[in-house]
Write a structure and sequence with these properties.
The chain has about 100 residues and is α+β, with helices and mostly antiparallel strands. It is built from five helices and three strands, in the order H-H-E-H-H-E-E-H. The protein has a three-stranded antiparallel beta sheet with strand order 1-3-2. The longest helix has 30 residues.
């Protein structure tokens, strides 16, 4: 199976909304598709991409297929963003210190 890039997966607003919906509730494919004003084949393509990058798991329950979130792959995004959060926090702290000295 092709392993897709999690960053590309979350770059699309429809895929982010799919993640948001299933992060709170497992949903069958039809119920999930009902939340979007796009064709079912388009929703299926988004689901396929999310499955390929490991953010979504499809489970068969009887005759229905349910989407379940597996958000562990988002840790890669968190780790990447954290380095920039630390960078900007240092810059803002330095700015705060500079402004405090200017007041004095």
């Amino acid at each position: 199976m092709l392993q897709r890039d999690v960053f590309k997966a979350i770059a699309d607003p429809t895929r982010r909304e799919i993640i948001n919906l299933i992060a709170h509730n497992n949903m069958n494919l039809n119920a999930l598709a009902d939340n979007f004003n796009i064709s079912r084949p388009a929703v299926s393509k988004h689901i396929k991409i999310l499955t390929e990058c490991g953010l979504l798991v499809i489970k068969q329950q009887g005759r229905e297929r349910f989407c379940q979130a597996d958000l562990r792959q988002l840790q890669e995004v968190t780790d990447w963003a954290e380095q920039y959060r630390q960078f900007w926090m240092q810059k803002l702290d330095a700015l705060g210190n500079f402004l405090d000295k200017e007041k004095s």
